[in-house]
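fold-stage: in
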Amino acid sequence: MKLVLNQHQIEQKIMRLAHEIVENTYGIPELFIGGITGNGETFAQQITEIILKNSAQTVTYFKIELDKDHPLDAAISCSIDPALFNGKTVILVDDVINSGTTMQYGVLKILEQPVRSVKTVALVDRMHRRYPIKCDFVGMTLTTTLGERVEVIPSNGSLEAFLV
């Protein structure tokens, strides 16, 4: 395992991503920020807190629960009523985007409503897409082989990203 991001670097990336979101959503009074099951939830909560401290925007946090390995085997659920997304800007957050599968199914859940726009955020983008998903906000782009993967895991009481 090779360390690619330590806790401090992750915090810096999250701060930058939150400020990029504020800049790119200027004039939009209300945002919905959702985290995908796992670390996506943690990062979405952190981004929400930073935006609330640095912007007058109203921000609603939610989570999307899905089976990352087999997304069609169980229902994809949302922690708030998806009808609230109607006409709104929704931002979906995950820790690592690789093939785009998880992000694709998360976006499909959001698109069950007529939203104003959907933006995607990932801490690490591996660039090995099988689906036509692009990340609007990326903390770090990492070139890897198909056999490698990036995992954000707890280590010594903090989160760190590793190439394995």
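fold-stage: in (second)
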Amino acid sequence: MALKITDDCINCDVCEPECPNEAISQGEEIYVIDPSLCTECVGHYHEPQCQQVCPVDCIILDDSRPETQEQLLQKYQGLVGHKA
């Protein structure tokens, strides 16, 4: 499932450059994650890089967008131009 950034975000700017899919951007008040681009770093890393660098642990799973590992891999492959 995609990740989301909670209101606890302090706009520290460390998560955005870590996202290999460029899914993170500055929103109106806090950073936001585009769920159509978020693969939880599947295809790139073993764990979400944004979660690893977040100093306030405000990046969580978005329960409203369930996806399996296979679906995340297919999304990754679509983003980088590979066929599943």
